[in-house]
Amino acid sequence: MMNELQQMLDACNLPAMKVQQVTGGDINEAYLLYNHEQRIFLKLNDAMRYPEMFVREAEGLNALRAAEAFHVPEIIATGVTGTKQFLLLQWIERTQPALQYWDVMGKQLAALHLQKQPMAGWKNDNYIGSLQQKNTEQNNWPLFYAEQRILPLATKLCNSGAFTAKQMQHTEQLCNRIAAIFPNEPQSLLHGDLWSGNHFPNEKGLPVLIDPAVYCGHREMDIGMSCLFGGFDKRFYEVYNYWYPLETLWQQRLQLTQLYPLLVHAVLFSGSYIQEAAAILARFGQ
């Protein structure tokens, strides 16, 4: 491993650095590289198992930066060394959130979503966690959500025996109804994986976004994801709604927007996620 790290440093024209392993999510090896001049965050993963994962992550970070709504880490380099792919990012020190943290977060997400996009999807397929995410562009959000988010994952679960024929029937019935459920809005650029583990306060106590799974789609997808796995502070939703009010009955659509990440978790981790996804399909697909 040290030889591969040194090869990577040499390829990126970086000086000799100390290496300290740090936490970096469920699937990546992560390190702090540092000397007296700079500190760099390094992510490593298998180059064959998850091809171009970090290239796509870098694209997502660049897209969020270009939108000038959120602070994201600067990209230093990405590439492959031996069997490993790597991503080098600006190291941002985590601190305690400022009093206005959630106000800023809500306003910034509204600013991101207000930048309307012509198509659902993205220029490249990418990843959500370790699962490949298909992003073929379409000009119809309900069709995109049905054909590239819900149906492929439900089919995968059915083929593995985790979903029954009845649950697939619910899936197909829901996909036929999606257009009647979502309010008709232009597409927004989405973070795509906006849960509590993918943002943190920087040295000023203000939000930084990491680990995007970007695509363009209905903005309620980010809102729904933010309500999963612990959720965000209520002030976030109040401020977001001030700057970009959500359409009526958005709370009743939350489970539908959460269906995709729950299907992702069902495919990756099984367990109770299968039952949670099946319950949403039964609610909306009958």
Automatic annotation (TrEMBL):
A Pfam family that the UniProt record links to this protein: Fructosamin_kin
Q: Which domain of life is it from?
A: Bacteria
Q: Which InterPro entries match?
A: Fructo-/Ketosamine-3-kinase (IPR016477), Kinase-like_dom_sf (IPR011009)
In its keyword annotation, does this UniProt entry include Transferase?
Answer: yes
**Is the keyword Transport in the record?**
no
Output the Gene Ontology terms for molecular function: kinase activity
Cite the entry's keywords alphabetically. Kinase, Transferase
Q: Which family does the record claim for this protein?
A: Belongs to the fructosamine kinase family.
**Alphabetized PANTHER family for the sequence:** FRUCTOSAMINE 3 KINASE-RELATED PROTEIN, PROTEIN-RIBULOSAMINE 3-KINASE
Would you tell me the protein name for this molecule? Fructosamine kinase
